[in-house]
Write a structure and sequence with these properties.
The protein is α+β, with helices and mostly antiparallel strands. Helices cover 16% and strands 49% of the residues. Strands 1, 2, 3, 4, 5, 6, 7, 8, 9, 10, 11, 12 and 13 form a 13-stranded antiparallel beta sheet that branches. The longest helix is centred in the N-terminal third of the chain and has 26 residues. The two termini are 38 Å apart.
Length: 268
Amino acid sequence: MSNVKLTAIGASLFVPIMLVGAQNAQAEGLSFSFGGIAVIAPKYEGSKSYKAIGFPLAIPHSASDAETSSFGSRISFKGIDDVRFKLLDTNGIELGPVAGYRGGRKQTDGNLLGGLGDVDGGLVLGAYGAYTTNGFTFDASYADQLTGDNTGGQLKLGASTMIALTDGVDVKAGIGTTYSTNEYMDTFFGVTSAQSGTSTASLAPYDPSAGFKDVNFSLSSDIALTPKWTMKLGGKYSRLIGDAANSPVIETKNQFSGSLGLLYKFGS
C-alpha cells in the first residue's frame, strides 16, 4: 500500500473523532491539536528492510482534561492499528473499544515473499481493558480484521509505567506480548502447498499454529516544546518467537520501529 493511501486511511480513522469533538466543543470547551506523525517500521513482520509511512493526527482537548468525563482524556493512540476510547474509567479500571488499520503485505516487499501473493490490509475492531495500581498499568486488547483479507485476530497483553526522565519530561516504558490466531499466523508466516509451488525462493510448505508471536519493549514520551507545540516520540523493539520465529518467510527475528510526531494546539 502506498504512503498516500495509508495517509488517506489514517485521516479517515480520525475524521469521526474530529466530528464528534466539534459537536461537543461548545458544551465542553474543547480545543484541538493537529499535526502528523512519521513511523519507520519493517516492510513486513520479519523483514530486515524498513519503510517510512506517515499519517495525520487530530487530538481533542478540554479545559477539564484531567477529568475522566472529558472527551479528550478518553482517547489514547497506541498505533494506527490500536486507537482506544475509554467508555468506562473507574477505580483504576478502563474498558472500551479499539479501532484502527492493519497493514497488509506485498510479495515485492522481500526476496522471500516472491510468488506468495499480496495480503490486503483493512480496518480492525475490538475491545480493550486495563487496570492501574501502584503506578503500573496492565492491559489487554483483542482486535479482528473486518475488511480486506481475513487475517484473523490478535490478543495483546502489556504492562507499563511512567518514568520521570528529567524535570517536566516523563517517559512511558512498557513490555508486552502478542497472541495471534491461526488465521493470522497462516497469513503472515505460513506457506501453503500452492504458494510453495509458485515461490521464487523455493520455500517449503509451512503450517504455523496459533500462539504467542512476539515479546516487545517500548518507550514513548510527549514533550512540550512550547505551550502550543508538542513533540511525540516513540520506539519499540519486538522479538519474534514460537512458530513465527521459525517461519521460512522471515529474514530476522529482531524488529525495530520508531515514530516522531509534531502537534500544534489551536485554542486555549
